Amino acid sequence: MRYVFLALGFFFVALGFIGAFLPVLPTTPFLILAAACFARSSQRLELWLLDHPRFGPLLRDWRLRGAIPRKAKMMALIGTGLGFFLFWFGSNPGPLLALSVAALMLTGLIYVFTRPS
Prior knowledge:
Layout: H1 2-19, H2 28-39, H3 43-50, H4 56-65, H5 70-91, H6 95-113
Helix pairs in contact: 1-2, 2-3, 2-4, 5-6
């Protein structure tokens, strides 16, 4: 299982790296998953993530308090709104699909906004 978690950790780091350059793909959630996988497979790689100058403080705050910074919450709100706007006008969905997507997006936003800052 150690090698499975190690491979997953590298996979999530790669997704997080891609997300740093693509606005539609988040970075931090993938790095949180990577840190969790590395915690089960490689202490050295886990510490590398937790000590990273840019992402380390976010990962440590999440691990200690389940905290999401206020700026990240605002970015989630803007990104979700933009995503729904593009979905609505780009695909002209039916009412059931539009409500389902809106409910899913709102569920995610509620989770994000109920975390401490």
